[in-house]
Amino acid sequence: MPQDLTAVPWPIRTERLAIRPATPGDLDATWAFRREPSVSEWLTHRISDREEYAAVFLGEERLATTLVVEMDGEVVGDLMLRVEDPWAQAEVAERAQGTQAELGWVVAPSYAGRGIGTEAVTALLEICFAHLGLRRVKALCFADNTASWRLMERVGMRREEYNVRDSLHRDRGWLDGMGYALLEDEWRARR
């Protein structure tokens, strides 16, 4: 099963978007929207300094798991695609290696409400299942991040978890968290 992103025929094109692996040259374009308060409120790291952001963005793991979303040649969002191993018993752990991914997304606020997130994540699911041969994807969010969990539902992901005050938000304190997932066979059936 291929998991190497070089196996994907980049860029992946949708009706309006082009999706490709991030490069160091995408630093300033992603920084422009990731520093916006409406975006950074929900991100794992709130970074207010460009140099600190550069250190994170250009890190080997971060760059390797980030895809950028372009519309008419402009970066309008980014996606996280982190291939991982699910839990498995020791005797079959090797068979489980690299069979699922955690997904994430950000859309520039100036492009919100236009269906770009839905279009990009729909393409991301195709990358995961059709190109990388994964069997399962998952995504997590704060329950208060309505836009994120609604997007998960629009693209066919199933809510698997609703956890009461399990997620510590830097400003809001302990919040409820949600987990969504989709299996490859469920994705194929929906197509």
Automatic annotation (TrEMBL):
Family matches, as CDD domains: NAT_SF
SUPFAM superfamilies per UniProt: Acyl-CoA N-acyltransferases (Nat)
InterPro entries: Acyl_CoA_acyltransferase, GNAT_dom, N-acetyltransferase
UniProt cross-references to PANTHER family, sorted A to Z: GNAT FAMILY, PUTATIVE (AFU_ORTHOLOGUE AFUA_3G00765)-RELATED-RELATED, N-ACETYLTRANSFERASE DOMAIN-CONTAINING PROTEIN
Domain N-acetyltransferase: 17-186
Organism: Nocardioides aquiterrae
Short name of one Pfam family: Acetyltransf_3
The protein, known as: GNAT family protein
